[in-house]
């Protein structure tokens, strides 16, 4: 039930004869506020969980480099759309050009799951007439399983009906987070991963963070700068 993989996007600009060819993909995290999009991005790229919650303002993007079996080098450019709402003016621009979309919900919040219909519709509309990106359904906060509001069957049904891969994960504990991104990277790059390979590959490689704070309204930007693990992250 693999979703159609978008064509591999060319080599990175800094590729030279000395460096291995690197595939680059734009990955977008979509879903309601507070489902854990920023936490998932941080967990994967920095392997930490920020306890202090701040609604992301503007756009952060993270770059994570992975080496897949067969020495296939992949750079995932992970875009966190922050506080952009589904009706936001800029949202289409953020989604446009993505090779992969993570449709994220919080397993303890049924509404956040229901709203994925709208998020997915927005993706389909943005890509109308062109190749759809690779879409993965992500149920976050599995550490709160005792508060679960979305049954596992609902999750699976949504993924099956829409021909998507799906993952249940926890940004808090890190459970399944790397696997989700490695699966996505491998599928986009056309690399077949066995289960043991996926487990080994999920051990983190290297991350960089690039901040692109923007404000939809164009003014009154509020950027909170925090030191996190030695890096400055704009939220
Ligand atoms: P968003 O980027 O989708 O808006 P955030 O969501 O990453 O800012 O997370 C929203 C809240 O959910 C934060 O809590 C964050 O700590 C929490 N959260 C994110 N992922 C997980 C998870 O896997 N498990 C649990 N238990 N909580 C998670 P606060 O309390 O700061 O609002
Ligand atoms: Mg956020």
Task: Supply the key terms.
9 strands, globular, binds magnesium ion, disordered C terminus, seven-stranded mixed beta sheet, Rossmann fold, 7 helices, alpha/beta, binds guanosine-3'-monophosphate-5'-diphosphate, 235 residues, two-stranded antiparallel ribbon
**What gross morphology would you assign?**
globular
Order of helices and strands: EHEEHEHHEHEHHEEE
Low-confidence stretches: 1-8, 10-16, 204-209, 212-235
By CATH, the architecture of the largest domain is named 3-Layer(aba) Sandwich
Look at the structure and name the CATH superfamily of the largest domain: P-loop containing nucleotide triphosphate hydrolases
How far is the N terminus from the C terminus?
Answer: 36 Å
What is the CATH topology of the largest domain?
Answer: Rossmann fold
Q: Spatial order of the strands in the main sheet?
A: 6-5-4-1-3-2-7
Main sheet characteristics? 7 strands, mixed
- Helix run count: 7
CATH class of the largest domain: Alpha Beta
How would you state the average pLDDT, rounded? 79
Radius of gyration: 17 Å
What's the number of domains?
Answer: 2
| Ions, cofactors and other bound molecules | guanosine-3'-monophosphate-5'-diphosphate, magnesium ion
Estimated share of beta-strand residues? 25-35%
The overall strand count is 9
Structural class based on helices, strands and sheet pairing:
alpha/beta
């Amino acid at each position: 039930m693999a979703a159609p993989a978008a064509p591999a996007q060319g080599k990175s600009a800094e590729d030279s004869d000395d460096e291995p060819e690197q595939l680059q993909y734009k990955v977008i995290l979509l879903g309601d506020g507070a489902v854990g999009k920023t936490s998932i991005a941080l967990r994967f790229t920095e392997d930490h969980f920020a306890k202090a919650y701040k609604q992301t303002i503007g756009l952060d993007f993270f770059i994570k480099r992975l080496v897949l079996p067969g020495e296939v080098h992949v750079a995932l450019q992970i875009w966190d759309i922050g506080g952009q709402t589904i009706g936001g003016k800029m949202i289409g621009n953020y989604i446009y050009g993505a090779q992969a979309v993570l449709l994220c919900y919080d397993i303890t919040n049924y509404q956040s799951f229901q709203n994925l219909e709208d998020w997915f519709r927005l993706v389909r509309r943005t890509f109308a007439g062109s190749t759809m990106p690779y879409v993965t359904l992500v149920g976050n906060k599995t550490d709160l399983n005792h508060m679960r509001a979305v049954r596992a069957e609902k999750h699976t049904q949504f993924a099956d009906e829409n021909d998507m891969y799906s993952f249940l994960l926890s940004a808090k504990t890190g459970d399944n987070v790397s696997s989700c991104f490695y699966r996505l990277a491998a599928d986009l790059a056309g690399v077949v991963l066995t289960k043991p390979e996926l487990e080994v590959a999920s051990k983190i490689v290297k991350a960089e963070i690039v901040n692109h704070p923007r404000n939809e309204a164009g003014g009154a930007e509020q950027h909170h700068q925090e030191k996190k693990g030695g890096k400055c992250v704009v939220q």
